[in-house]
Amino acid sequence: MLFEAGLTLLTLFILLYIYVTKNFNHWKNVGIPFIKGTFPAGSHIELITQSRHMHDIFRENYHKFINQDFYGIYLFGKPVLVVQNMDMIRHVLVKDFNNFVNRNDSSLNSLFDGGEFDQFWAKQLIHLSGDEWKDVRSTFSPIFTSGKLKGMLMFMKEVGAILKLELGKYADSGEDFEIKEVFGKFTLDSLASCAFGINPKSFENSSTAFVRNAARIFTSTSLDNLKAFSRFLPFSAKLQKRLNLNALKPKETKFFCDVIRSTVKHRRETGERRNDLIDLMIDCMKDASDLEPNNENVEDQYENDMKFEHKKRKIEIDDDVVVSTALNLLIAGYDTTALTLSFMGYFLSKHPDIQTKLQTEIDQVLEQGGVNLDYQDIQDLPYLEMCLLESLRHLTPIGAILRTCTSDYKFPNSNIAVKANDLIIIPAAGIHKDERYFPRPNQFNPENFSKESKQSRSPYAFLGFGQGPRACIGMRFALLEVKVAMIEVMANYSFVCSGKNLEPLEIDPHSIMGYVKGGLHARIERRRKH
Ligand code: HEM
């Protein structure tokens, strides 16, 4: 019996070994530079041992291959092309977007395609593919136009006022605080208010059901990782789907789905309106084909690159799509925005001269516009945006942009070709530290985002929000949210450097996004107004 069990395990191990290593000659055969693969992780065992974060690996590789347009790696058994040439990046993200519509390849998709509750992850915009993605993206894009954001500004400001009071407590006590923890409460409450129409009261009580479930959604235990990893084993994903096994925090997923469903039901039954994201999504569902596409007349390269041709099919956007999309907005918008705010707080605490310049800009606009700034006043703060983008350049929450080839493609002026389902990685975290685009890349210098500096480099050298039709749909929302919080903070307080930060900063290898090891700390002081 023991012998048979041992033999079965050995056979399974050999099959797995063959499955993982069968393509390990791919890049050698293609004849491009590559990092060799070893069983079981491929080129980077650190991704399994969690000894280094993916962002650090891609940053290091970027400099190792700095003079190459591209190189190959193996992720587990899969050959992946890493593209670092600006023109090729433009082709993948924008010019030949129709060949690269998808983000996930089929094996990444199998991670999300499990039981009943995993389906709410599979149906999220961020994971959808092909025409299904185009239908949902074009249906919901209008919810982020400037007109709609203007309507949501007051919800953000309400939470901004609470943030100001909370920071007052730290100013009075003189204690250091973990910046993301405080700004995380701001982003959770303002997203929940704008997207779900509810108030989680994070500042008052950290144990409300909403806050607890959100906290669990954003952390991963070893068991969560194991369940996710099991999806990549041969035949495992199909089997798990058939057995209705959920790998992606089903209890918490159900909690948020119930919250969103009951909000939709309540709005429909009572006709109550807040003009928040839920109302706008319900509008989109009524008749998707009636909605105007996002054709705002903008000069902006990012906005123009985001447009894509799509003849909307006569599709039924059902409640499940709304639930998945609303859940996606929370998941994609919460941590990214909170991290950005914490990066900004940290850098401002380290650079008092830059902080003073920012405060002067904000003071001037407040003097002219009064305390109640409107949407346009907030757009007229160029230095605030420069500080924000420079913070994102240094510590990018999403340091690798993924695209999957949807039909066979040969890059123009090169001998490199990719096939359908091939995965491409664009190493944003590496590009952001390339001195050809950002002089003295390790210094914090908001001037990197002055009009002149932006004009002097390729627009694809900054990928904090991605680029092209599949770029961050919530970028404008995020920029507004960060600015509302920072105006409130900078008008009243100054960040002061803390000795608690673990310098030089290191990205925590256990985090999915770019969390900083040990957190980011600062103190805050009330400003002495003249
Ligand atoms: C500072 C905060 C944020 C950062 C740095 C950020 C960054 C990104 C990046 C890098 C991508 C991938 C883009 C690509 O592949 O080209 C992305 C996608 C996405 N983001 Fe954001 N994001 C932020 C805030 C938000 C917010 C507030 C929302 C929603 C309210 C949001 C919703 C999404 C969604 C739904 C996608 C997937 C889009 C698609 O596949 O069509 N993000 N974001």
From TrEMBL:
One of its GO terms (molecular function) is monooxygenase activity. The keyword Acyltransferase does not apply. Its main location: endoplasmic reticulum. This is CYP3026A1. It is a peripheral membrane protein. CDD domains: CYP6-like. It is found in: Endoplasmic reticulum membrane; Microsome membrane. Its cofactor is heme. Belongs to the cytochrome P450 family. Keywords: Endoplasmic reticulum, Heme, Iron, Membrane, Metal-binding, Microsome, Monooxygenase, Oxidoreductase. One of its GO terms (cellular component) is endoplasmic reticulum membrane. InterPro entries: Cyt_P450 (IPR001128), Cyt_P450_CS (IPR017972), Cyt_P450_E_grp-I (IPR002401), Cyt_P450_sf (IPR036396), Insect_CytP450_Detox (IPR050476). Pfam families: p450. It comes from Eurytemora affinis. Heme binds at residue 472. Signal peptide: none annotated.
